[in-house]
Please model this.
Amino acid sequence: MKLEIVNHNGGLVSTPVPAVRNGTSASPRPLRGIAVVGLGYWGPNWIRNFYSLQCAHKLVACDLSAERLSHVKGLYPSVETSQNFDEVLRDPDIDGVVIATPVSTHYRLAKQCLQADKAVVVEKPMATSRAEAADLVRLARLRDRVLMAGHTFEYSAPVLKLRELIASGEIGEVLYISSVRANLGLFQQDVNVAWDLATHDISIILMLLGQMPESVSCQGQSHFRHEVEDVALITLHLPHNVIAFIHVSWLDPNKIRRTTIVGSRRMLVYDDTALQEKIRIYDRGVTVQPYYDNYGEFQYAYRYGDIHIPRIEEVEPIKRECEHFVDCIRHNLTPATDGLNGLRVVAVLEAAQTSLRNGGIKVPLSQTN
Ligand SMILES: NC(=O)c1ccc[n+]([C@@H]2O[C@H](COP(=O)([O-])OP(=O)(O)OC[C@H]3O[C@@H](n4cnc5c(N)ncnc54)[C@H](O)[C@@H]3O)[C@@H](O)[C@H]2O)c1
Model:
């Protein structure tokens, strides 16, 4: 069952073009209310965007911590607050819920939302295992509710631009991808650095290539907490000899957010820390010359062409996520980052975790574990 779900749609990752669910065009539903659960570091970004979009009559902020609730209330006085998640579930005026709590709670809280017939967007990663993620997908189908994975970068303008550049054939065949996401902290309590940071890179790479890896390997090390790795290197072995390396770290002096995509004709560098000019297209490459003497070195010609910087209209990705979630509820659409998309990313993470615990072996994605 697991492989079947992972390879649904021929292994293609869904695109951010909303599609009508169940093939029917339902009449728009007015949105009564949205709740955001978890107001730590990330949750307030959802509140800020829903607040400014004014897309629902009611906006509820829910957290176990009274302090976090009063902080949010201070910033957004018209937001209702609750310390009780069950209250949110019971509220008939809440159509959709954002789960922005620690990863270990995602499955339980998202499941309760779906059982209460709420649409739900679950922050990344959607769950802590493939079995949990598959169960959420199954439940969302059963209850005919929107299930969206909070894969923020799939809504970001530079990443959408990268996908456009690859799909247009401008860089030729993708040969390999190298991604680095490093900084000092924020150490998470319940997941290692792969589940925390590499989730972004995996979701970006699956979206760009539209393919699942055939196998995954991962090495890492924990320096502070037993079995909570703070540095990791994940390798995705993709079809047609494409390989992707993802280096993630909570233990780096610099903040690095850089993805290099090497194509057979051109190369792309995406630096998310750059204020402007996040993408550079390098007209550089290597061509193999016809053999003309005994020295292998001379069989290659290196091309050092121009660097082109495309113009990108940036919108805060989470704003697009908010709008998309609301649209999906209103118009009964399948989210661009639907439950299956969330499941695929979790499946890759789970394979990486299995590899990590087994000395970095290659773990096939078809393996049941
Ligand atoms: N998409 C992104 O770019 C991005 C960035 C950062 C974090 N995140 C994700 O957001 C989620 C939250 O991360 P964070 O760094 O904000 O965590 P955090 O620890 O700072 O905050 C979590 C909050 O959830 C609350 N909480 C826990 N259990 C709860 C419950 N049962 N009911 C109500 N509230 C509860 C806690 O009191 C806390 O305030 C994680 O899944 C993380 O992976 C996503």
Summary: The longest helix spans residues 339-356. Residues 2-153+317-338 form a domain with the Rossmann fold fold (CATH 3.40.50.720).
